[in-house]
Amino acid sequence: MPRPELLEQIYTIVDQIPAGRVTTYGRIAAMTEGATARSVGSAMRHLPEGHTLPWHRVIAATRKLADHDSAQRQHELLRAEGVTFDVSGKVPAHLLWP
């Protein structure tokens, strides 16, 4: 689990991802002072109960959804925001934020 100050940075960035857009674990890590893509993933897996962060807008660098227990829910939430997927399951590059 990332240090508390890194968690705050990660969560602040995730909160800024606009609806209908996605970003990657690595892009979020690059915007922090020391997080890695893996630590961003850990932060997403350990979100506090009752959070309102748009966790579903964070995807793998392949632009596909990571294989996890909430992948189906993530797909549904993204589709509801207008995010599209190509035939291989990738999100189009033009939807990447920032």
TrEMBL record:
Superkingdom of origin organism: Bacteria
Keyword DNA damage: yes
SUPFAM superfamilies with a match to the protein in the record: Methylated DNA-protein cysteine methyltransferase, C-terminal domain
Coiled coil: none
InterPro entries per the UniProt record, alphabetical: ATL_DNA_repair (IPR052520), MethylDNA_cys_MeTrfase_DNA-bd (IPR014048), MethylDNA_cys_MeTrfase_DNAb (IPR036217), WH-like_DNA-bd_sf (IPR036388)
Domain Methylated-DNA-[protein]-cysteine S-methyltransferase DNA binding, first and last residues per copy: 8-83
Gene3D superfamilies in the cross-refs: Winged helix-like DNA-binding domain superfamily/Winged helix DNA-binding domain (1.10.10.10)
Keywords annotated in UniProt: DNA damage
Protein name per its UniProtKB record: MGMT family protein
